[in-house]
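Issue 218. Parser rejects a valid record. Input:
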Amino acid sequence: MRKIAATFFLTACAFSARADFIDFYNGVSLGAAMPKSDMVFLGPAPALDGKLQLIDFWATWCEPCRDSIPKLNALHRAYSGKGLVIIGVTKEGREPLAPFLQKNPVKYALALDGEKKLYTALGIRGLPYAIFVNRAGTIVWRGQPAAISEQLVESLLAKDGG
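Output the parser choked on:
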């Protein structure tokens, strides 16, 4: 009887965890317009008009976020000349970023959302989180940066006229 109860309990936990995972992504709808943002870029703001945008929401303390940086750097190298702009957005201030970026170089654009307006508008409740925004300003993909592949980028660029 204990084994049955334990199995039932673990199954219930697994389903509730999965429900939380699904709910996590319900903050932003595919097909929704990208909200206007007043994020502050740490360097020159990239030209966004006519570009497919990959916006990665991250933090220095987030291990999966840090693990995504080499992949995003590689995607930036491979696709920045083909119509893709990558922007890493954090709600942290400038102070923790400087020492972090010395040890972990980021080759794509970085921006601050210090007032959390973009995080709030998109309903982001956890990190890491990424979205693709097409040239028309529509959100066309959402999920974990670890799930982004070259095939996905190429597919979105092709659909977007890239």
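Fixed in the parser; the record now loads. Residues 29-159 form a domain with the Glutaredoxin fold (CATH 3.40.30.10).
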